[in-house]
Design goal:
The chain has 165 residues and is an alpha+beta fold. The protein folds into two domains: 1-40; 44-124, no CATH class. It is 52% helix and 15% strand. Strands 1, 2, 3, 4, 5 and 6 form a six-stranded antiparallel beta sheet that branches. β2 and β3 form a beta hairpin. The radius of gyration is 33 Å and the shape is extended. The N and C termini lie far apart (121 Å).
């Protein structure tokens, strides 16, 4: 055996037990540090991370508090089919689709057909047109008393000339 092979063999077999001991010591230290020295995340408000249409729907509702496992928020969905957990927003969307499919499957065939045609008609209508832009100070947000917008310069001169005559 060449001397290079002997050195490699000695290094490989000598380094392996050291690496194993180092890994075991590191895991033990990390386990005790994670359990005692660091703060655990508390419950999270679901409304901070989800849109309103993702929080509740027909036959299901997400509990108002979620937990975090270090990577994903873990949501709990309550429905008449039971409580389901979803790890992350993408999985929450999948769980909601599953609940809605189970609900649709539990309907009578004629009711399910009527529901799907009503949904198709609503989707064909499209979204509601946004309201036209409004002048500042008009309802829905009128100005506070004493904070009304000043009239333009032309309007001020017209009104002052009317009183002079």
């Amino acid at each position: 055996m060449s001397s290079l092979r002997k050195v490699r063999a000695r290094f490989a077999f000598g380094a392996l037990p050291v690496a194993i001991l180092f890994g075991a010591a590191w895991r033990a230290a990390a386990g005790t540090a994670a359990g005692s020295g660091y703060e655990q995340p508390g419950p999270l408000s679901v409304s901070r991370y989800l849109r309103t249409d993702q929080i509740a729907g027909s036959g299901w509702k997400v509990q108002p508090r979620a937990t975090n496992d270090g990577i994903f928020n873990v949501y709990t969905v309550d429905s008449r089919f039971g409580s389901l957990q979803a790890r992350g927003s993408a999985r929450l969307a999948v769980r909601v689709k599953e609940i809605e499919a189970a609900w649709l499957g539990s309907l009578a065939p004629e009711a399910a057909k009527a529901f799907t045609t009503a949904v198709a008609a609503a989707r064909a209508r499209g979204p509601v047109e946004p309201p036209p832009p409004m002048a500042p100070g008009t309802a829905p947000r009128p100005p506070r008393p004493g904070r009304e917008p000043k009239p333009s310069k032309e309007e001020r001169t017209k009104s002052s000339r009317a009183f002079r005559d």
